[in-house]
User: Fold this.
Amino acid sequence: MNATRDSQDRDLRSRSFQLHDQPWFGLAYLLFAYAPLVFDPRGGLRPLFATLLATAVFLPIYFGFYRRAPHRAAWPWILAVAAVGYVLIPFNVGGNTFIIYAVGMAAASLPQRRAIALNAVLLLAMALEFLVVIPLPRVAGALSGIMCLVAGIVMAGIFYTRARERHDHELRLTQDEVRRLAGMAERERIGRDLHDLLGHTLSVVTLKSELASKLVERDPAAAQQQMREVETIAREAMAQVREAVSGIRAAGLEAELVSARLALLAADVRLDARLAPVAIEPATEQALALVLREAITNVVRHAGARRVEVELTEAAGSLRLGIADDGRGGATQAGHGLTGMRERARALGGTLEIDSPAGGGTRVTLDVPHALAGARA
Assistant:
């Protein structure tokens, strides 16, 4: 378990380098290494030469760090950059810029606790060096405090990015699991439909075939009649299978609800669903699933909602599917798929009502006749 967690952490830390696919952008902060030279009362070329030399040493380490393979240790690169800063500080206090670079590299590549511990040591060493190099302790303390604040901001930003990447990674895993469950639900639906369709038919075919084999010598005419009935039953079964197979691509209501949850999850919309445990005719279930799909598509594309409710109830020989959102409303145009919803409702002898006041969300209510009753198998 620990090995798996460590592997995932390394994978997530390696993802942090996606922000540094173009490490050239990070070099803009090198300006802060040269800024103190403008205000240095000592002037002269020595601090400038030292800063140029430090930059020349820093660049290969910097690019080597971000181009390294994820499994290679980051410690040597971080400490090398920090060492460049410590060596430069006696000549130019802007050497603290390289310490900040080291802090960012540690936050991006090490486990969070180790990064914080290492960065605390690096910043403490920098503060002690400031006390030695800068003759005024108050100035040294103020500069140390400012650099620690900057380092904290850098670490917080990188840790936030890593946390967001972890969340995105977990979300992708969740979406994969939802897709798997949706596929499983659809396979169960197909298996249930085929069992209901072919189970009785094949049993009848078997019985009539056995009866025909017993009658073929004693009563050929009766045997022929049984075989003709077998042929008729087989043809009807083939027609039913073709009809069922043509509808396999249309997901059942439960599978469509799982797909809806996945789509809304990606759009950061909460879904609350309550489905009554009733058996539904395949044609009716297909129509309900398609209406749900179109309604959820409208929510994702047009509604700007934060929450969606889906409810299926049974009463007085009819089924009612309600889909409500808390979005902007005003969904009355035919282009929002409402025409297709109404056509499916009419094909089943049902009705479709849409309540969508501007700014008050949208509620789609589909009522269709229901001939089946009882719990789901």
